[in-house]
Design goal:
Length: 728
């Protein structure tokens, strides 16, 4: 057997046909470092998920995991690995179809499976399923990242029926989890109010998290969530599952507490107004659903997901990031060459790597002097920039800094030449009045001509300006009146829009693989691992008031690594520049302030903070993050980052409550250090002229993690950064 496969299939390590005799179910365990997902092929050829939890030490014992308890006369489908619709299943399906003959029933039986070892860490289990009556197939894929305890799951659907088949629902993943209670934490928000958490115990029935906004789909609710099992998990204790649909369009996550008290989780593209027509012989690949399970609380789950993201998903996740000066809030649309020349000098003076020119640099017939005109016309505005972008890249070079630029290539103002020339490229209902968000409409990326146009906007910028070093890619509108003049079948539109967007981004990344690009969407309107595959960073919120940011960044950090979080120091709020900068340093640091208006002390502080940031960037960008003390339950929020060698760490502490005597009255325990190493502790990022109240001293890691240190946060010392350096 072994030789046969070794000879015939170099990559496919194992192909197992269904047991020829119907006497025993076949068990397929998928193991990671700490966990196991166990699938079972029953004698009825249905594939069920019988276990998801801690890995067993004796692999053979997976065979002894019994079927979950199911009430008598139940449909027997509760724990299907991919629940079909219209046959014996009567619960929420993962897949629903209308066959070529109009029949709406589907059954999926096991055919075979393969396990492909991609490298030492990554392996892929693919299970082929087929309907016994219709020529309709589904392949379930489980890609496991062993060391990170992360799984990505997706499905490939195809058929050879005589005519088109309509996919009425086509989820990426279907999990079945057994526990004594499930606590869902999910998030809601709006512009400047991103990532507001809610946690509740799930009751029977279905709780659905979804978006129907088409683009900028996270505006009300992002596609990330966590479920604690048995009891609400804390940072360091409890079992918790994190999930994210890797899809930058309408998504849907159903969490169904079934009649057997188990959790059915179905996640993928939202089928709302999206029945997808699939031609015979064509494969439909769903987006991936990524998840991780930890039995050591929310902290470990985050670190697993963050390390997976840096290693496998985010562009250049293991590389450096550029600090920058942005001009959005310092100039808005009002700038010209002399003003920008000064800002380029300021960039150098401040000591950051790059100047980022924001919105307002384009449009001539309809100049982009406000948000009501010009979007779509990507020629340089001659009145503001008579010497073009070349002048800016040249001036940047003269100042020894890099240059980046803002685009919003998926959108159009009705007041634009693009709209005049190509009204059929715009998402709108031809017979209904137009309705706008921020005076703009969305371009129809399901149309290949529009894809070409959007690609060419960014491609032209790079080819005409080879020194261009950074792109901020914005997306400010949701879709109203969704309709495509291109699509023959309107139901395909929402899904094809995102495929079109990814097609453009695939082409751009093939040509410009590493150039830093920020994923912005009027704030955090579009953050998910489908999009982050193409971006180096994202913009969590337009809200940069630093106390607000402590909360937003805290919640984002459950799912996304710090190096991807673009944090800009701005003039939002009343906190001093030290507080604002300290908070921004917890991710990818940037500034959006008028440098020339900074007082000498403020400028000196910022210049020194950038140096401190670079000194600790290894810990912040590529290290492990520990949320030490929550802003929700304490006067003081505390977060630390430890580099991979456990030799260098930094602890961030902020006062988030202004009641009388608010502050740290007890030491805060550090985490993630080596107990046996000695560490020198000192307050860093001090404002010029202030003295630290914390004595420089050396402690063991054990002391710092058992007794802790008090950062002495109080009124007048509202933000304190503590550097932790190994002493050899
Ligand atoms: C959005 C972004 C901002 C800025 C403006 C420009 O609102 O979130 O950062 O780029 O667009 O119009």
């Amino acid at each position: 057997m072994k030789n046969f496969f070794a000879q015939n299939f170099a990559i496919v390590l194992l192909t197992v046909a269904l047991y020829p005799f119907d006497t025993k179910a076949q068990t397929i365990p998928i193991e990671s470092k700490d966990n196991a997902i166990v699938l079972q092929v029953g004698t009825d050829k249905h594939v069920d998920m019988i276990y998801f939890g801690g890995k067993l030490s004796a692999k053979g014992e997976y065979d002894y995991i019994g079927k979950p308890y199911l009430p008598e006369n139940s449909t027997d489908y509760y724990n299907s690995a991919y629940t079909p619709s219209g046959s014996r299943n009567l619960l929420e399906p993962a897949i629903a179809v209308t066959h070529a003959d109009g029949n709406k029933s589907l059954d999926l039986e096991y055919v075979n499976h393969t396990i492909t070892k991609i490298n030492d860490d990554v392996s892929l289990l693919s299970i082929n399923l087929k309907d016994p009556v219709y020529d309709f197939e589904v392949t379930l894929n489980y890609q496991t990242y062993f060391n990170e305890n992360v799984t990505e799951q997706w499905s490939v659907i195809k058929h050879h029926e005589k005519k088109d088949v309509v996919l009425n629902k086509y989820a990426s993943a279907n999990l079945y989890i057994q526990a004594g209670g499930y606590w869902l934490k999910n998030f809601h928000g709006y512009w400047a109010q991103e990532m507001r958490p809610e946690e509740e115990k799930l009751t029977h029935g279905i709780k659905t998290l979804d978006s129907k906004l088409g683009s900028r789909t996270d505006l009300f609710q992002p596609p990330v969530f966590m479920v604690s099992l048995n009891k609400p998990a804390t940072e360091d204790e409890g079992e918790v599952l994190y999930g994210n649909v890797e899809w930058s369009g309408n998504y849907r996550i159903d969490l169904e507490l079934d009649p057997a008290n188990n959790l059915r989780l179905i996640a993928g593209i939202n089928n709302y107004a999206a029945d997808y027509t699939l031609k015979p012989g064509v494969e439909f690949t769903t987006p991936k659903f990524v998840y991780t399970l930890s039995d050591k609380g929310k902290g470990e789950a985050s670190r697993n997901l963050q390390s997976w993201a840096r290693k496998y998903k985010i562009v250049d996740g293991e590389g450096p990031r550029l600090t920058l000066l942005n001009n959005w809030e310092s100039t808005y649309f009002d700038f010209d060459e002399p003003k920008l020349s000064n800002l380029l000098k300021n960039t150098k003076e401040l000591g950051v790597d790059l100047f980022l020119l924001d919105d307002g640099w384009f449009g001539n017939k309809y100049p982009r002097n406000g948000d009501h005109a010009g979007l779509g016309d990507w020629e340089v505005n001659k009145a503001k920039l008579p010497d073009g972008i070349a002048f800016l890249t040249k001036t940047a070079k003269e100042n020894g800094v890099k240059f980046g630029i803002w685009v919003e290539p998926e959108m159009v103002n009705p007041k634009s030449e693009l709209y005049e020339k190509h009204p059929d490229w715009v998402v709108k209902q031809p017979q209904r009045p137009e309705y706008y968000m921020r005076n703009q409409l969305v371009l129809d990326l399901s149309n290949p001509k529009v894809q070409e146009y959007v690609f060419s906007i960014v491609d032209n910028l790079f080819s005409k300006n080879p020194d261009l070093a950074y792109i901020k890619w914005d997306c400010n509108s949701i879709m109203y009146n969704a309709y495509s003049a291109y699509e023959k079948n309107q139901s395909n539109f929402y899904t094809d829009y995102v495929f079109g967007l990814y097609h453009v981004l695939d082409r751009l990344r093939a040509k410009y693989p590493k150039v830093p690009m920020m994923l912005c969407s009027g704030g955090g309107g579009r953050v998910d691992y489908g999009a982050l595959k193409y971006f180096t960073e994202y913009w969590p919120s337009d809200n940069t008031e630093p106390i607000e940011r402590v909360f937003i960044q805290w919640e984002d950090s459950y799912f996304y690594p710090a190096l991807a979080s673009s944090n800009h120091v701005t003039n939002w709020g009343k906190q001093p520049i030290k507080f604002r900068t300290d908070v921004a340093m917890m991710g990818k640091l940037g500034f959006d302030v008028v440098v020339s208006q900074l007082k000498p002390d403020e400028l000196a502080y910022c210049q020194q903070a950038i140096k401190t940031y670079k000194q600790y960037s290894e810990a912040i960008w590529h290290g492990d993050q520990y949320r030490l003390q929550s802003p929700w339950d304490n006067d003081v929020a505390s977060v630390m980052y430890v580099d991979q060698s456990k030799g260098s760490a930094i602890m961030f502490n902020y006062l988030v409550n202004n009641r009388y005597a608010a502050g740290t009255h007890l030491p805060i325990l550090l985490k993630g250090l080596d107990p046996d190493k000695s560490y020198a502790i000192s307050e860093v990022n001090l404002y010029p002229g202030t003295r630290s109240t914390i004595a420089n001293a050396t402690y063991t890691g054990k002391f710092l993690m058992t007794v802790g240190i008090n950062p002495d946060i109080r009124e007048g010392r509202a933000s304190v950064l503590i550097g932790v350096q190994e002493v050899k």
